[in-house]
Amino acid sequence: AYAFHVLNHTFQALKRISENDNNLKVQKVDVAKKESDEDLMKDKGFTKPKVLILCPFRQDAYEIVSLFRDILNQPSDSKWGRFESEFGPAPEMSSEDIHDKKISSEKKLKKNSGNEKLILENKPSDWKALFGGSKNRDDDFIIGVALNDCDESSSKLEIFTDLYESDILIASPLAVQLTINKGMKNKKGKKIKENSDFLSSIEICVVDGADVMLMQNWSHLSNTFEKLNLAPKVDHGTDFSRLMPQFIHGLSHSWRQNIVISSILEPEINALIREHCNNQAGLIRLLRDYKDGSICQVALQIQQVFQRIPCKQTDLPFKQDEERFTYFKEKVCPSLEHSGGNSWYRSHTAIYVPSYFDYIRLRNELLRREKSKTGNDLSIGTSEAVFVCEYSRRSEIQRSRARFFSGKKPLLVFTGRAHFFNRFQLRGIQHLILF
């Protein structure tokens, strides 16, 4: 739905600029009329880009641009061939290729083709929608889109335009951050460390798939919002006589429309909206009403234990993280230790850790406690526990899952991102701890 809104906003802005250009030609003769209509000519920003659409993968950008082309009924040209090759569907890959990004040998593919097909079929529907089939999952991309006419019926959609010649920018937060960090040179040839001028005149910012971006580097998204609507460091041919008042007074961020789309609501998303989406017209939040589904209808009834972590009301968020980690060391870790038998930990226990940084702290703490009890020099490979994160190789994940399922390793620690991107089935879990 926002595609129609974005195109309509862009066409209206271009139409207003085109009409004012024609009026200026007439007003060169009629000076009195020029002075009376001077305030009506405020129709431009510092730079040309008016819309920024942030999405997690190239496949999303491909669908957005294809939708623009269908709406405008655009024919294909040479640039569309390049667009299909760079943003279109990638060759269909197995689940191993999704993790390692490399194609196995023909012999291995032929041997495991039946198993791979069965594994992909057992993946949940949300994983298939994001990663299934031949979707392009690259997260480093930025593409400029320009409309060369203010008339919707005759306008031609141009792609791969220069950032400062584009009306619409479609990018991932990572690509925006890399573009900013590249810097630029001013007219004197002096190097400027950061280049965020192409974001100085954004009037609509769309975040499509904020829930998926939580599994990427969220700081890239927050940093992008911090750079929106800042005064440019270099003059890019701005016509200051036609600059809109909100840009002159530094209030363009209060006039920017922000559209954040997510399937879930997380504290990070709420913080982003609270800090960077302060439009002068207010805020509208639309929530979907789910009438189907109930926790009472879960097929497998399990015992759930919730433990409240005491935190002071005056504690800052980072201190609350420390309180949670301290509670885990003092209360949860002793319950994991198993005095009887050959294993050090309670058998078939898994720990789910949402954050990679918490995963590192937790892993080091478990290794330290095990070393202090046994007196042996331990490493990740010789520990009684197995550890899986988003940076683990596919072979390491398979080996860890097999050892945990067979009982050779009683404890499994894995991260939220590893689960999100792989969505593998972890067999053998009898006790699950959500950190």
Query: What kind of sheet is the major sheet?
Result: 6 strands, mixed
Strand order of the largest sheet: 3-2-4-1-7-8
Number of helices: 17
Low-confidence stretches: 101-111
Q: Which outline best applies? A: elongated
How much of the sequence is in beta strands?
5-15%
Helix share, percent? 40-55%
Radius of gyration: 27 Å
The number of strands is 12
| Mean of pLDDT | 81
Summarize the helix and strand pattern as letters. HHEHHHHHEEEHEEEHHHHEHHEHEHEHE
N-end to C-end Cα span: 38 Å
Write the layout of secondary structure elements.
Blueprint: H1 2-27, H2 31-36, E1 51-54, H3 58-72, H4 78-87, H5 95-100, H6 106-121, H7 125-131, E2 142-147, E3 157-159, E4 168-171, H8 173-182, E5 184-185, E6 191-192, E7 204-208, H9 210-213, H10 218-227, H11 245-248, H12 252-255, E8 257-261, H13 267-276, H14 317-336, E9 349-353, H15 356-374, E10 385-388, H16 394-406, E11 411-415, H17 416-422, E12 431-434
